[in-house]
């Protein structure tokens, strides 16, 4: 079968979504399908001098004016079209009458635009965009959700006459495994940390739901306990905000909290492998890739006691209340001796996310899609 995967606009810098499309291409090719990944054209948005708001608005010309005719032409020979990110739900129309499916990773932005989160304010243009995404998503005949939590959020959006949802857990979209000691020491040296440093690890962006301020507060509460007094916190991902830097000072963390910034895949594996545990107290997620990445590297996981983290981590994690730093620290201290057990439970949990099983599930859904063709929208 000829399958077209519509991925994300490259200048938007959505590496996880583009990795998902490439992962899906690999799985489907293994099943014997002819698969092409197609990207919206970067014409005006490709100018290197554009930054910030101007780049975003110029990018809209590419994504919403130039992309539809371009994508229709690129996918003209496909027998099935799969839009790989729900934020591109408007591209489903490019499939015309072809069988089509879309993956929904999370609905955090859609729900935020509907004032679901008290601390989040979405601008008028953002609300317009998220209403459009929601409208087209609810028109989709088939939606693949990456977790049951995402599926529940989808169903909460309102009635959809034709929509059918399917849950398919995603396997790891990159290779993760226990790093050699030399790799770990080399990565720590680049961060100017002693090779013998005991540290908790965190990786994320700066979205409100990532709860990076909660990470620092939980860590500060944990350091009050004598057995954690020498522990350090290494935070990778997006650069720290001014709020985080101020919080580090007010919590008197000093150099105990380390800003690692963006790291390579090799360094990421090393940081997981060398950590005493991953601290991942997200408030919301669609799936939670770092949970599985850490488990694959033999890193014990500390995460939120709410879905989808509980759904993804299985029994291989210490579950905490992400909104209560002192209580979270007490739970961590209580369960700290279980780390060896959690490593093994993490390895066992990864079996639920095997590539072969995921590939078979995608192919099963595609057969259902082909058997129930959508009308042109």
Strand and helix layout:
Elements: E1 2-6, H1 15-30, E2 34-38, H2 52-74, E3 80-83, E4 100-104, H3 108-113, H4 124-138, E5 142-145, H5 148-156, E6 164-167, H6 181-190, E7 199-204, H7 212-223, E8 232-237, H8 242-250, E9 257-261, H9 265-274, E10 277-280, H10 289-296, E11 301-304, H11 309-313, E12 318-320, H12 325-335, H13 339-349, H14 355-371
Parallel strand pairs: 1-2, 1-3, 3-4, 4-5, 5-6, 7-8, 7-10, 8-9, 10-11, 11-12
Helix pairs in contact: 1-14, 6-9, 7-8, 7-12, 10-13
Strand content: 5-15%
Helicity range of the residues? 40-55%
Give the CATH topology of the largest domain.
Rossmann fold
The rough form would be described as globular
Q: What is the first-to-last residue Cα distance?
A: 23 Å
**CATH architect. name of the largest domain:** 3-Layer(aba) Sandwich
CATH class of the largest domain: Alpha Beta
Structural class: alpha/beta
How would you state the average pLDDT, rounded? 93
Ranges where pLDDT stays below 50 over 5 or more residues in a row are none
Rounded Rg: 21 Å
Sheet of most strands: 6 strands, parallel
The tally of domains stands at 2
The CATH homologous superfamily of the largest domain: Glycogen Phosphorylase B
Give the spatial strand order of the biggest sheet.
2-1-3-4-5-6
Q: What's the total count of β strands?
A: 12
SSE pattern: EHEHEEHHEHEHEHEHEHEHEHEHHH
């Amino acid at each position: 079968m000829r399958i077209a995967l519509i991925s994300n606009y490259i200048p938007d810098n959505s590496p996880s979504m583009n990795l998902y499309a490439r992962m899906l291409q690999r799985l489907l090719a293994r099943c014997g399908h002819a698969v092409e990944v197609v990207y919206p054209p970067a014409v005006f948005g490709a100018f290197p001098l554009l930054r910030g708001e101007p780049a975003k608005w110029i990018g809209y010309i590419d994504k919403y004016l130039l992309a539809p005719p371009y994508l229709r032409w690129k996918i003209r020979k496909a027998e099935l079209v799969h839009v790989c990110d729900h934020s591109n739900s408007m591209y489903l129309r490019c499939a015309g009458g072809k069988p089509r499916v879309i993956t929904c990773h999370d609905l955090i932005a859609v729900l935020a635009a509907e004032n679901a989160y008290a601390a989040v304010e979405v601008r008028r243009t953002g609300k317009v965009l998220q209403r459009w995404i929601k409208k087209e998503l609810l028109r989709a005949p088939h939606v693949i959700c990456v977790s049951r939590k995402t599926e529940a959020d989808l169903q909460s959006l309102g009635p959809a006459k034709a929509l059918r949802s399917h849950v398919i857990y995603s396997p790891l979209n990159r290779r993760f495994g226990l790093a050699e000691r030399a790799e770990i020491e080399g990565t720590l040296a680049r961060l100017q940390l002693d090779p013998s440093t005991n540290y908790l690890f965190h990786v994320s962006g700066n979205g409100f739901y990532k709860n990076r301020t909660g990470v620092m507060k939980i860590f500060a509460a944990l350091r009050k306990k004598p057995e954690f007094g020498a522990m350090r916190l290494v935070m990778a991902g997006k650069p720290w905000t001014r709020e985080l830097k101020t919080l580090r000072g007010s919590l008197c963390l000093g150099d105990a909290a380390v800003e690692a910034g963006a790291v390579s895949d090799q360094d990421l594996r090393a940081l997981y492998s060398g950590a005493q545990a991953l601290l991942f107290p997200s408030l919301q997620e669609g799936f939670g890739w770092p949970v599985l990445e850490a488990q694959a590297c033999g890193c014990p996981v500390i995460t939120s006691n709410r879905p989808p983290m509980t759904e993804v981590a299985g029994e291989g994690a210490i579950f905490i209340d992400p909104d209560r730093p002192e209580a979270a620290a007490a739970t961590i201290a209580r369960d700290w001796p279980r780390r060896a057990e959690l490593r093994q439970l993490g390895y066992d949990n990864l079996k639920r996310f095997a590539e072969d099983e995921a590939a078979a599930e995608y192919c099963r859904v595609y057969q259902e899609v082909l058997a129930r063709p959508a009308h042109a929208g």
